[in-house]
Amino acid sequence: xxxxxxxxxxxxxxxxxxxxxxxxxxxxxxxxxxxxxxxxxxxxxxxxxxxxxxxxxxxxxxxxxxxxxxxxxxxxxxxxxxxxxxxxxxxxxxxxxxxxxxxxxxxxxxxxxxxxxxxxxxxxxxxxxxxxxxxxxxxxxxxxxxxxxxxxxxxxxxxxxxxxxxxxxxxxxxxxxxxxxxxxxxxxxxxxxxxxxxxxxxxxxxxxxxxxxxxxxxxxxxxxxxxxxxxxxxxxxxxxxxxxxxxxxxxxxxxxxxxxxxxxxxxxxxxxxxxxxxxxxxxxxxxxxxxxxxxxxxxxxxxxxxxxxxxxxxxxxxxxxxxxxxxxxxxxxxxxxxxxxxxxxxxxxxxxxxxxxxxxxxxxxxxxxxxxxxxxxxxxxxxxxxxxxxxxxxxxxxxxxxxxxxxxxx
Length: 410
Fold this sequence. Notes:
Elements: E1 3-6, E2 20-21, E3 38-39, H1 65-70, E4 79-83, H2 88-99, E5 103-110, H3 127-139, E6 144-148, H4 150-166, H5 173-189, E7 197-199, E8 205-207, E9 219-221, H6 239-242, E10 245-246, H7 254-263, H8 285-293, E11 298-302, E12 308-312, E13 334-339, E14 344-348, E15 379-386, E16 391-398, E17 403-404, E18 407-408
Parallel strand pairs: 1-6, 4-5, 4-7, 5-6, 7-10, 11-14
Antiparallel strand pairs: 2-3, 8-9, 11-12, 13-14, 15-16, 17-18
Helix pairs in contact: 2-7, 4-5
């Protein structure tokens, strides 16, 4: 049976076991009429016990020290809220924690905007995900809760994304979602339900201090699978958030996860990994941008000569380095600059020439897991993403601090 909870302030009484019907309230999204939201009591959403001694999950050898370590088996039984999506990764994470003897409750976060995109699809986009999540939970008798976070996601993630595109920047929705929703609004929603940790199927590893070291930091580390590693998408988490997290897949690779899924006979073992932006489903991002910002014709200019090459729909449809969708002859052409004030997009055919290589990058909005951050000229390692070949690597780097607390440093 599915139960529904929400982080909306008006739904706080749900955590005490009452059932209520919400009145409509205004949304930031225009043109939409808010339908009343009926929430079913979540009084049973307190941590539920999976059989504490059950470690047999389909004949898989749980004697692997890595599985024991990342599933925190030595500290069982913990009360763990496990985020599930219906995919293979989160399902294997749930099964590992359950097999380790923890008391697990699964949570599915619903952030779809059906009303916004009802003309784009004919079926419920999250129905299959939820069915798979329910089937995985049913096999081990773990309760599944559905948490509606559409409003929170819009207010704290999507609105920010739209504003960034209007400003000519290309944000990463996954970084915001992890910080503000999965381990932000959701953590708030369950803070009084007695869970020790929140777990998910991310490929990352968190090393927590010993129980005696109350001042020690929790450290985010790379996962064993360096290709699938997702520490970048978790890079803006605070210490308060990190201290509450478990990532059971941080000690194994994607191939091992697939093998475990087959050995566990998971109903979703053959599902493909999800692609694209989570809240849009089958909707193309360009369609979403067009709906939210609109179109405005501008000119395409060659960066080196200033020659007129054609027109475009609006600078917010393009990102630096983009090649596809320009529809210009004599290419390949790449977007190299955007004129936000006059709606001009500059393109070049020499984007990857040797003289365009850069060894210096100016970055901001950094989140240092240590209190003070690095010192000037400190040797670090920088993770680089290569979208062209679909991989990533770390390379030595030197940091030069230009501003600290808003004050120039050099």
